[in-house]
Amino acid sequence: MTYTAAAPRLEPDAAGAEPARVVVLNFGSVAVGDTEAVGRVAATIVAERAHGVDVVAVLPPYGRAADELARLVSAVSASPHPRELDMLVSSGASMAAALCAMAVHRRGCRAVSLEGAQAGIVTDGAHTCAEVVEIRPERIESELQRHGVVLVSGAHGVSRDTGELTTLGAGGHDAVARELAAALGGEAVHVRELDGDGPLCSREFDASLRTR
């Protein structure tokens, strides 16, 4: 794995204040299928931010959009081209990040959503089953300094070789959370589920995800 040097957030600023710690929340195991789920995810992010940390949230596709996209594909083609599948599926992933950013704003917290390429997720060229090969964290670093919360469409990136949009294979959200945490000098937390009101119900600093 290759990391491009990020802005020096681990050094004190000119006034001597320590920068905020970065926590990467991996929501890859959480079903974000409706606006209520979006609200619970947003409440979890805002609660984490209230602890004085910068938050990067890695989100799965928006469930209803993903279901509709699958229906459209089956209606149009029995053997869709992998590149076009990646183009289509990415729209559902970006939808979840944008909706959650709006819900975070509503709760009085600044946030910005980024799709995979904007977030610096660089992959190999394998469509529908790409692997992360490089993290370029400069954009996330910049947005954390401005907003404190960044929501990332975690299931896709951009090919290092072709510049094409790619969708990650199995375990993609875990890989993105782990590698983003390493690149940002933070720690990755796997959110297993949410309770009905929003705060974390089950969270794990998994050995496979935790990075300091």
Task: Write up this protein.
The chain has one domain: Acetylglutamate kinase-like (Carbamate kinase). It has a six-stranded mixed sheet with strand order 4-7-3-2-10-11. The chain is globular and about 50 Å long. The chain is of the alpha/beta class and about 210 residues long. About 35% of the residues lie in helices and about 25% in strands.
Q: Could you estimate the helical fraction of the residues in percent?
A: 25-40%
Walk across the major sheet and give the strand order: 4-7-3-2-10-11
What is the CATH H-level superfamily? Acetylglutamate kinase-like
Residue share in β-strands: 15-25%
Do you know the CATH topology?
Carbamate kinase
**In terms of quaternary structure, what is this?**
single chain
**Rounded radius of gyration (Å):** 17 Å
User: From the 3D coordinates, which CATH architecture would you assign?
Assistant: 3-Layer(aba) Sandwich
Major pleated sheet = 6 strands, mixed
Low-confidence stretches: 1-15, 197-212
What's the shape?
Answer: globular
Secondary-structure element order, N to C: EEHEHHEEEHEEEHEE
Which secondary-structure class do the elements indicate?
alpha/beta
Q: How are the elements arranged and paired?
A:
Blueprint: E1 2-3, E2 22-26, H1 35-49, E3 54-59, H2 63-76, H3 82-106, E4 112-114, E5 121-123, E6 132-135, H4 138-147, E7 149-153, E8 156-159, E9 165-167, H5 172-184, E10 187-194, E11 200-204
Q: Main attributes?
A:
36% helix, globular, six-stranded mixed sheet, 212 residues, disordered N terminus, Carbamate kinase, disordered C terminus, alpha/beta
